[in-house]
Please model this.
Amino acid sequence: MSVLRNIVILTGAGVSAESGIDTFRDGGGLWEQHRVEDVATPEAFERDPDLVLRFYDMRREAIQTKAPNAAHHALARLDREWEGDLLIVTQNIDDLHERAGASRVLHMHGEHLNAWCTACDVRSRWTGTLIDRPACPECGKAALRPDVVWFGEMPYHMDAIYDALREADLFVSIGTSGAVYPAAGFVRNARDLGAATLELNLEPSQGTGWFDEARHGPATEVVPAWVEEILRP
Ligand code: OAD
Model:
């Protein structure tokens, strides 16, 4: 590998699992408790908005009671200390990377603590509930929805993400099952463009064979160990 300067990190639900936030596809995960098509599509929102708003209100409340874990803190340290380019692309809608202190973060599936007004298109920080149809702070209309990307919608920041992948010397995937595209395809984009690739996950992901190297274990162990290694080679 050439000189390591530019790093792109993809994170998924596994990085927040040890903070007590349910993953989607593990045993007892969110998609065992709820059907995707009932709570996470634009059609579901049209059909039964109360069900969808209640689902996200409960999760928004839960997220605010959780704290970043050692994996979030290690990535925040890497963000602070790494002098080259670094981008944390997260599929997570929680704010635990930011609460740990990371700033170079893009939320490709949206942010749970934002509400998006479908009338005026403005996004507002939102920590309360939406089920009671509050007024948009910007235009006053009761047209707020969770600012999360549902199945069938376009993920956010794709141009910036592909730009970063093009420049990456190293792509690291942390705590994601590799089941949902386009994120699951980033490893192939990165390696086709010459980056080294590393998986850090509890178990082999669906795409584990695409990575040059894979280390398996809990994020709170494997992530701090990798960060230490990369900052003190
Ligand atoms: P998944 O639930 O699909 O996968 C979580 C991954 O984390 C699995 O591979 C687990 O083995 C791993 N994992 C669990 N606990 C871990 C731990 N303590 N340490 C390390 N790894 C652990 O979640 P995602 O891959 O993030 O999208 O799911 C991707 C997208 O699917 C989500 O963003 C969401 C979902 O449907 C939307 O809602 C649009």
Observations:
- The radius of gyration is 18 Å.
- The pocket of 2'-O-acetyl adenosine-5-diphosphoribose is lined by residues 12-14, 17-18, 23-26, 29, 40, 91, 109, 149, 151, 175-177, 179-180, 201-203, 205, 218-219 (CB under 6 Å).
